[in-house]
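REVIEWER CHECKLIST
Item 1: Sequence provided? yes
Item 2: Single chain? yes
Item 3: Sequence as submitted:
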Amino acid sequence: MLDWLLEIDKDLFLFLNGIGHPLLDTPMIWLSDKYIWFPFYGYLIFRLYQKYHFKFYQPLIALILVIVFADQVTSGFMKPFFERLRPCHEPGLESLIILIKGCGGQYGFASSHAANTFGLATFFYLIERSKFSYGMLVWAFLVSYSRVYLGVHYPGDIIIGGLVGATGAIVMHTILVKIFPEIKEY
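Item 4: Structure as written out by the authors:
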């Protein structure tokens, strides 16, 4: 059963990685670059301040814990535990994949990019349920897809990473509301 799932994951990766276009290469590199998003993260903190005023630190701390959880579970535990090679390090795939910009670390299961962005987007969805938070879910999907496009993650890495991040966001939001019930009132 596991071999069958891994084969589907590989076939889906090859399909998605192969439908790229040179005009999309640079935007996909930007989507995947964590440093380009720092101004956006600053805006998210400002958005929390706008909504919660001087209590913005409460959801901000919870959000930081979501990111720490997502990153540590995927990079600190899952990648070294499962040791699943990234597709760009897989010996049988090197001639079949389109590798746009470097490969990254040796292991890719599960995607930290997907975990972090879906954790962030899910958390904002839970505290806002606005058009903006729906847009963040689209953003998380695009950042995650960019990892497949660039040739560094299988779709399964993305799906599981996204689930880890979303789970962390749900748990932290639940804890946040239990500790600070007034957060629900906003």
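Item 5: Key structural point noted by reviewer: The chain has a mean pLDDT of 93.
Item 6: Recommendation: ____
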